[in-house]
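F.,

This is the one I mentioned.
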């Protein structure tokens, strides 16, 4: 099912490493220029390229580029960590950071790096549990079952109890296959190098998802371990990890048509959606997200421009919001431009004929059953998107009312132990709200923009109950309601909080405006979750049938499962493209383009003085092109998505030639439908990265520890 051999489209597919042999991937890759064997890329019992790649932080990929655990990833992947270490006094976002020795490498609490230790096919085990009645088939998609199953397997494994080892079980091919993935997590990861944002984020929001690109989107970290090379929490006695595998770095350059493969952790694709589901993505998810995030970002952008303190506080939040705001805009445009709905309709017509010809009643009705669920769920998904974007993530000020409820009971019962417990919890809540990356006045302005917008976007009967308070007690004046909330809550400021904590009382809790706001918000959230769950009930099993049928229809051509943030391989070539009639984009850019884009009046296109000096002097060292120019970025046909950020781009000899960081505007429907002509991965050339580390950062010692192939 979905894994038989026949040549597939050369570039489409986020392929499972564990199926490489079964799908004869290496044969097809060698035809395009791969010089390695399949076992060199992935071997279940030997060291391979797989062991040089891992999960960086919570949602990116990183690769090991030295024997001493040096990690290369994107600047935007390391952005939160760079911001974490930044202050007005030490503004590493603006100025960059360069550790001149290992003693200067900065511990980064909370940052982790995970390697894939082992991958096991557990499909038969899970199917046997379904057959034996131990679990219902629909429950095998859910985290409760998968988490319990993974823990049971880990306990029975030879890896049980080993440092840093965890296990996760996940469905693939819509639940037609299941794999158990053992991960090894290192918790002492230190910041080593990061270019100024004017280099690492050059082009900013304007150039995001665009080509041509000139962003040197990289940052460098290092894994530290205990004396035995095992994972350990930060300790000054920890030592750099002696990596079992690191990538050699090629300075040989690239030409159009050269083989390129990417290994990484793509987050999520939806290639098996029906036409109705694509429409739902456009209207119930993307459209409200675009409107809401655009409104919030306008507020943040203005406040960040007015204050360096706010700029640093909100840098990571703004970047994260803006990225998928623009992605949603581009996706909806690309779906229309690339005729994705028409392509899906044609596939469904072919599938209907396949079902009829093969007398498969289950296949014949499955698309119609999916469409019925989608129609039913559209209104509640739209409301849920609005709720998530505004009340769950857009407005930060809020507290868990359950803690306040518990404290109220303890105060009423004169339970001293309970009062102590819940006031301590409230202190933690207060500190989590008023953290170093939160500004109360900025958030107040965000609330004043978003709460009226919420009332515009959803029906009156779908609003949380605090909107009645706005109408009844504040005569519809949103600003007055929000000012009362932000000024007069126990959690509004230190003075209010300390006054309450010194003498907790029930009356103050019951009258607290934040209590009513959050309780109303949580009630609506719980209601929407239940309604959406009910509306979508049965969809996963229908998808399981549909995907199984599609794989049979396309057989013997293999298909890759949707991305789910597990390790994947994609292969393709370095390649230019033609986005529109009369327009040709070549496959690479140079530092000359940075100078051409320079605009000192626009913070997105400022060029550091030192970079201009190096450019003017043509001081590019061994990193230059044969014609003397400095390479910047390049294009490949690799199939990537979010989560691949930071992934290594590797040549046919298994050497690092670049780091993936973006996709092109014309192919933003690629998560739903891959277009072989338009889909491009944008990567920063490894020579540009090394040039910045060496010549601008003055960190030749880092270059010295890498394995460089001239």
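My design for it:
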């Amino acid at each position: 099912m979905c894994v038989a051999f026949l040549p597939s489209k050369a570039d489409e597919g986020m392929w499972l490493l564990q199926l490489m042999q079964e799908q004869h991937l290496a044969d097809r890759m060698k035809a395009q220029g791969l010089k390695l064997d399949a076992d060199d890329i992935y071997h279940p019992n030997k060291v391979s390229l797989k062991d040089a790649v891992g999960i960086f932080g919570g949602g990116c990929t990183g690769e090991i580029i030295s024997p001493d655990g040096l990690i290369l990833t994107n600047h935007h992947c390391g952005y939160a960590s760079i911001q974490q270490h930044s202050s007005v006094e030490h503004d590493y976002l603006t100025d960059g950071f360069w550790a001149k020795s290992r003693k200067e490498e900065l511990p980064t609490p909370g940052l982790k790096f995970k390697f894939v230790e082992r991958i096991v096919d557990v499909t038969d085990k899970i199917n046997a549990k379904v057959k034996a009645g131990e679990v219902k088939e629909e429950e095998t998609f859910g985290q409760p079952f998968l988490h319990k199953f993974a823990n049971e397997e880990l306990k029975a494994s030879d890896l049980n109890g080993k440092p840093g080892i965890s296990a996760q079980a996940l469905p693939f091919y819509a639940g037609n296959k299941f794999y158990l993935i053992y991960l090894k997590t290192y918790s002492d990861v230190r910041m080593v190098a990061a270019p100024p944002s004017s280099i690492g984020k050059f082009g900013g929001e304007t150039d995001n998802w665009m080509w041509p690109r000139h962003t040197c989107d990289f940052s460098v970290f290092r894994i530290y371990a205990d004396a035995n090379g095992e994972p350990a929490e930060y300790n000054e006695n920890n030592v750099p990890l002696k990596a079992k595998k690191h990538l050699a770095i090629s300075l040989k350059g690239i030409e159009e048509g050269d083989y390129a493969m990417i290994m990484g952790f793509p987050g999520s694709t939806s290639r098996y959606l029906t036409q109705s589901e694509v429409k739902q993505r456009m209207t119930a998810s993307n459209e409200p997200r675009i409107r809401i995030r655009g409104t919030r970002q306008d507020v943040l952008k203005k406040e960040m421009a007015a204050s360096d303190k706010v700029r640093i506080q909100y840098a990571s939040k703004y970047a994260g919001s803006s990225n998928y705001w623009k992605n949603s805009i581009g996706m909806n445009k690309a779906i229309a431009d690339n005729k994705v709905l028409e392509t899906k309709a044609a596939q469904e017509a072919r599938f209907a004929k396949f079902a009829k010809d093969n007398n498969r009643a289950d296949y014949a009705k499955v698309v119609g059953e999916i469409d019925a669920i989608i129609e039913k769920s559209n209104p509640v998904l739209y409301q849920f998107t609005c709720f998530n974007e505004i009340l769950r993530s857009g407005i930060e000020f809020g507290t868990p009312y359950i803690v306040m409820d518990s404290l109220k009971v303890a105060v009423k019962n004169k339970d001293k132990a309970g009062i102590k417990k819940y006031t301590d919890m409230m202190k933690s809540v207060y500190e989590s709200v008023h953290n170093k990356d939160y500004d109360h006045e900025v958030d107040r302005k965000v609330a004043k923009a978003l709460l009226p917008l919420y009332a515009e976007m959803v029906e009156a009967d779908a609003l949380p109950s605090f909107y009645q308070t706005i109408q009844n007690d504040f005569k519809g004046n949103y600003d007055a309601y929000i000012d009362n909330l932000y000024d007069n809550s126990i959690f509004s400021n230190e003075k209010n909080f300390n006054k309450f904590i010194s003498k907790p009382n029930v009356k103050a809790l019951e009258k607290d405006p934040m209590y009513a706001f959050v309780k109303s918000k949580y009630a609506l959230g719980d209601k929407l979750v239940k309604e959406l769950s009910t509306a979508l009930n049965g969809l996963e099993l229908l998808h399981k049938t549909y995907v199984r049928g599609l794989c049979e229809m396309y057989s013997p051509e293999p298909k890759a499962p949707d991305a789910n943030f597990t390790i994947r391989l994609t292969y393709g070539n370095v390649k230019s493209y033609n986005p529109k009639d009369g327009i040709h984009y070549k496959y690479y850019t140079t530092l000359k383009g940075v100078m051409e884009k320079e605009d000192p009046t626009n913070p997105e296109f400022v060029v550091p003085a030192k970079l201009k000096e190096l450019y003017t002097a043509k001081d590019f060292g061994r990193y230059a092109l044969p014609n003397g120019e400095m390479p910047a970025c390049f294009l490949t046909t690799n199939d990537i998505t979010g989560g691949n950020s930071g992934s290594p781009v590797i040549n046919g000899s298994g050497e690092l030639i670049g780091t993936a960081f973006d996709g092109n505007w014309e192919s933003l429907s690629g998560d739903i439908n891959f277009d072989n002509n338009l889909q491009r991965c944008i990567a920063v050339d490894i020579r540009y990265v090394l040039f910045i580390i060496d010549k601008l950062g003055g960190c030749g010692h880092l270059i010295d520890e890498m394995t460089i192939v001239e």
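Residues 275-388 form one domain.

Talk soon.
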